[in-house]
Specification:
Keywords: Methyltransferase, Transferase. With 135 residues, this protein is mostly helical. The chain has a domain of 76 residues. Helix content is 27%, strand content 3%. The radius of gyration is 24 Å and the shape is extended.
């Protein structure tokens, strides 16, 4: 299908729309193809895509038991808005830190030690993934 990969090397001056490397990927589906996308793990199990309500619940925009209704009728537009949203708890924490920073800057303070906990903490998650051996 692709032939030699060296024929598609991209130079340092490459842009998205100039040169011989600007080719259409023949593996992409047509615009009018109806697709059902799934995520398939290494062991062959697959997981369905999230529903729009599940995405909104993950962003803390709605409780799972509530009816979701956004402006407009396009599910695609709803999903885009949900994906671009900042969860309310994170927005509140960001606003608090920004407000404190602005108040301190207005008073001429440029540095402050604080005992306030870090509001964005990495969550320690243990994963065990079985590796496929090439034997």
């Amino acid at each position: 299908m692709w032939g030699s990969w060296s024929a598609y090397a991209v130079s340092a001056s490459a842009m998205h729309d100039n040169g011989r490397w600007s080719i259409a990927d023949p593996r992409l589906p047509e615009a009018n193809d109806r697709l059902t996308c799934v995520i398939e793990s290494l062991d062959g199990t697959w997981h369905r895509p999230f529903t729009t309500l599940e995405l909104a619940a993950l962003q803390s925009l709605v409780e799972p038991e509530e009816q979701l209704e956004l402006d407009g009728l396009s599910d695609q537009a709803w999903r885009e808005r949900i994906g671009n949203a900042v969860p309310p708890a994170a927005a509140e924490a960001i606003a608090h830190v920004m407000g404190t920073t602005l108040l301190l800057a207005a008073q001429g303070e440029t540095f402050m030690l604080s005992s306030m906990p870090i509001w964005v903490r990495p969550v320690a998650v243990g994963l065990s993934v079985s590796q496929l051996s090439n034997s």
